[in-house]
């Protein structure tokens, strides 16, 4: 009996070590939780998703979010361009983690609560939409609308016709352009050229503040008050939230919190400077988007920091803290 008990405990310990190692050295510690859910556990199209960020979440709103698209039309979205909307004027989206050839939907479970799949059937395309209308069978057996092969979704936080709040979320969600491609691609190209033109100026700023140009990923900055802290490629201080949890993974900053504290985007390991690469990982949020993590903790940048080097978010509400070059939260100034 004792041998069996010891064997069981040893097995449990090994399992914990393996999971912890996956967080410390893998690309994502939560993809199984929020990625493609096992068959039978998916949210069904047309089924109730509860409030899920849909305003008040009453039954009429829930039904509207899960209704067929009917006649899809082309609308102009400020700053984005032409986008495809359903008959009620709600913007329709595609997800980079899905595939079009063959069509496959990977947004299930909690992801589907934030991004309700649009059911297939009773869908037509008005003039101006060149993308082919089709359907794909989801893991739960329901059929989802596709455009140019891409599964179609609405976004929970779009509460009024014309809203396009889902554009660019997590760097993986885009409104549909009339041809089925990502909307806003031309604007992104313009922005990219602008960033390149400003690159020399940003590098100069990085030299003035830290002695070296800021890396296009994660690097270390010397802060007079806090010591060595982590910053992103734009020199913005990275913070972690005390109400989050590294293990088990927990995201407490959701909803209106994300209007002030923005999830940092994942980076390539080759873009990490001054911090052990094993500490830099990627985690998947409940809405299916990916976020940068340091020592398994999700990290954010603060909208109250107006320029590189600002640390206005430090100690906010006693819950937000900068992160040092060893992946630990900074709670006090360095020793003199």
List the helices and strands and how they pair.
Blueprint: H1 2-25, H2 31-34, H3 59-65, E1 70-77, E2 81-85, E3 93-95, E4 99-100, E5 103-104, H4 109-114, E6 123-125, E7 133-137, E8 143-147, E9 150-151, E10 173-175, H5 185-210, E11 218-223, E12 227-232, E13 239-241, H6 257-260, E14 261-263, E15 280-284, E16 290-294, E17 297-298, E18 300-302, E19 320-322
Parallel strand pairs: 1-6
Antiparallel strand pairs: 1-2, 3-10, 4-5, 7-8, 8-9, 11-12, 13-19, 14-18, 15-16, 16-17
Walkthrough of the structure:
Among the domains are: 59-183, no CATH class; 214-322, no CATH class. Helix content is 21%, strand content 22%. The chain is α+β, with helices and mostly antiparallel strands and 336 residues long. The protein has helices at residues 2-25, 31-34, 59-65, 109-114, 185-210, 257-260; strands at residues 70-77, 81-85, 93-95, 99-100, 103-104, 123-125, 133-137, 143-147, 150-151, 173-175, 218-223, 227-232, 239-241, 261-263, 280-284, 290-294, 297-298, 300-302, 320-322. The strands form 8 sheets. A 3-stranded mixed β-sheet has the order 2-1-6, with no helix packed on it. A 3-stranded antiparallel β-sheet has the order 7-8-9, with no helix packed on it. The protein has a 3-stranded antiparallel β-sheet with strand order 15-16-17. The protein starts with a helix and ends in a 14-residue tail after the last strand.
